[in-house]
Amino acid sequence: MKLKFFSITLPIILLAACSNTNPEVSGGFELKGKLSNTNKDMLLLEHMAPDGLKVIDTVVVDEKGEFIANPQIKEIGFYRLKISDKNFATFIFDTDQKVTVGGDVNDLANTYTVEGSPDSKLFLELNKASMKNYRKRDSLQKTFQAFVNMMKMDSLRIDSMSKALEKPYMVLVDEHNRYLQNFVETHTTSLASLAAIQQLPAEQFGQTYKKLDKGLNSKYPNSMYVKGFHEGVISQQKLAIGTPAPEITMNTPDETPLSLSSLQGKVVLVDFWASWCGPCRAENPNVVKAYNKYKSKGFDIFSVSLDKDMDKWKMAIQKDNLSWKNHVCDFKYWQSPVVGLYNFQGIPYNVLLDKKGNIIAKNLRGDELEKKLDEVLK
Fold first, then answer.
1. Can you tell me whether residue 376 is helix, strand or coil?
2. Domain holding 263: CATH number?
């Protein structure tokens, strides 16, 4: 799953020089803290703006691990205090706040604390809960992948293991979705909920999306974050059940262009996946089973990969027995236009189309796909 605010990777634009570290400076936003295991480190304070990371200040830590700075925070938004690209703490700062942070420089992301910023505390709470759940899911994914590597081409045993792990995996998914829904609906005017809502599938939690959209617009109508989220909600409505699926044209493994519309006349599953995606690989046996069961009844699959490497993509197609012919990829990873076109934040993700190319279901997993196909292909 791609979590934009947990592991954001955007272009860095340098905008500012060193901060004033004089404790006598007053007024406006103030950031101070005490960090352990420091060696007069210099940290970057970056604005995680919708259009990219922007360095707004540098923070100099003294020999005691203490610092104080007065960066210009012009609007509420996401900011991060960075030691390196892999070691940083994320906050939601507002103008005129007096914020105090702490933590261990060697592992700031997992040890930081914050006071004086209510939204930052909410974000920290959300981050801890999410990472706890994802670690459990990751453990199941690694177990399955190790089994796949060991069994190699034994599809029956792989399918059996997939089913055995699917239930505990989905229990974790449902458990976290309930937590996220409650978090968002309890904090509809907090930007922290933007990080939570991105983890919820819009087709299942449409009302929660609308509640957050309304709440944030009532409090921050001019925020670029809120405007961007609102546009996403509107875009999702364009992908509602019954609407035509947007066209996709990409190259196949033999570098021949293939369009989704060429499959009209069949019931089609548009399946978004990637060779590097553990949950996708775990779900593939279910997709293969559905294809083999219903292909003679007018069912087909249009697989869209977010891969970056052609060889790994081709190898995964072969290894997972994805025997249908409609495989496409543009090798742009999460920068692929299809991500915005179909408005999804994580994979595996799929959309089921009727014979006219209209959307009739979304994100069908496991037995849900077969149940829907039984209904459609009577």
1. helix
2. 3.40.30.10
- 54, 164: one domain: no
Closest CA relative to residue 291, chosen from 265, 326, 262, 253: 326
Question: pLDDT class for 153, splitting at 50, 70, 90?
Answer: low
Shared-domain flag, residues 256 and 373: yes
- Residue 99: which of 87, 111, 116, 80 has the closest Cα? 116
Mean pLDDT score across all residues of the chain: 89
Q: Among 276, 302, 277, which residue's Cα sits nearest to residue 287?
A: 302
Residues of the domain holding 106: 30-116
More confident residue, 224 or 343: 224
Among 114, 18, 124, CA closest to 69: 18
pLDDT tens-digit map of 325-378: 999 999 999 999 999 899 887 899 999 999 999 999 999 988 899 999 999 998
**Residue 181 included in any domain:** yes
Which tens digit of pLDDT belongs to each residue from 8-41?
222 222 222 233 334 344 458 999 999 999 888 8
Strand partners for 281? none
- The per-residue pLDDT for 236 is 80
Instruction: Indicate if the alpha-carbon torsion angle 176, 181, 184, 186 is positive or negative.
Output: negative
Say whether both 156 and 57 belong to one domain.
no
Tally the domains of the chain: 3
- 128-159 residues labelled b (16+ CB within 10 A) or e (exposed): eebeebbebbeebbeebeebbeeeeeeeeebe
> Which CATH number goes with the domain that contains 53?
2.60.40.180
